[in-house]
Design brief:
This protein is mainly alpha-helical and 277 residues long. Helix content is 70%, strand content 7%. The protein has 2 domains: 2-178, Ferritin, core subunit, four-helix bundle (Ferritin, Up-down Bundle), CATH 1.20.1260.10; 188-275, Alpha-Beta Plaits. Strands 1-3-2 form a 3-stranded antiparallel beta sheet, sandwiched between helices.
């Protein structure tokens, strides 16, 4: 896990140094628009480095679990580091403005890899949404810089829009894979992934971990008497209620049908009873 998170830091550090270097060259050339764009992207990459560094500290403190399939993720990150570092020149002075925007697009394309979605799931409660919004703004900043510089019908603008579309599709597909579409909670697949990780964490640190299964009384009767549309509304109401009462460190998901799961780290039986009262 340490190697994985350190690889994320290394990737974003390369991106930070690249954007900072290109910003400096553009400033010398008097290209204020690109200098400002790359400077802001460099500062955002610094924030990304902080995200991964904070997650590493949390992992070292036993606050987050190991991720499943570490070997596969580690191998994929090694490939990404090779691809990103291979695309970055030693000096930026020889690059034209077109070259710089193309290099930025390559870096952001590499960063669309699904591996980062799996890792951001381990961040603090609400952290993934925050990261998703911030990174979306980061990608759009580069896309808008390309659109400002080139004609609407040109190849560069088309490729920028491909990058934007690829990012949005990647986010949508990542969400579909682990989220229940009706309630917005984790689905069975998303839940099982987290359960495996937290069970390993519990065994590793000898810490309590509570898992509660919650269902809706007479749910079949609700569907039979009032229809499935009302049943769906009941599921959404229960999902919202569970999300409101659990703590920020807990996880709630829909296991299937009218069954929900609450995963509560650092919680024993007595604490769980109070939580679900």
């Amino acid at each position: 896990m340490r190697e994985i998170l350190e690889s994320c830091v290394a990737l974003d550090r390369t991106a930070f140094e690249t954007y900072r270097g290109m910003s400096a060259v553009c400033a010398v050339r008097g290209d204020e628009d690109l200098a400002t764009t790359f400077d802001r992207m460099a500062r955002e990459e610094r924030q990304h480095i902080d995200w991964w560094s904070d997650l590493l500290v949390a992992w070292e403190s036993g606050l987050v679990p190991d991720i499943a399939d570490e070997a596969d993720l580690g191998a994929r990150l090694t490939e990404l580091i090779t691809e990103v570092e291979g695309s970055v020149p030693e000096v930026f002075e020889a690059l034209s403005s077109d070259d710089m925007l193309g290099l930025g697009a390559q870096i952001e394309f590499f960063m669309l890899d699904p591996v980062f979605g799996e890792l951001t799931d381990l961040m603090r409660p609400g952290g993934r949404s925050e990261v998703s919004r911030a990174y979306s703004a980061h990608v759009m900043r580069l896309v808008e810089a390309i659109e400002r510089r080139y004609e609407a019908g040109g190849l560069a603008v088309f490729l920028a829009r491909v990058l934007k579309r690829a990012y949005r599709d990647q986010q949508r597909l990542a969400r579909l894979a682990v989220r229940d579409q009706l309630t917005g909670l984790y689905n069975r697949r998303g839940l099982l992934g987290h359960v495996r990780q937290w069970l390993s964490w519990s065994a590793r640190y000898d810490r309590p971990l509570a898992v509660a299964l919650v269902d809706i009384d007479r749910f079949k009767q609700i569907n039979d008497e009032h229809g499935h549309a009302i049943g769906d509304e009941a599921l959404k109401v229960v999902a919202a209620a569970l999300s409101e009462v659990v703590r920020g460190s807990d996880l709630v998901g829909r296991f299937g049908g009218d069954e929900f799961v609450v995963l509560a780290p650092e919680t024993d039986d007595a604490d769980l009873a109070v939580l679900l009262d």
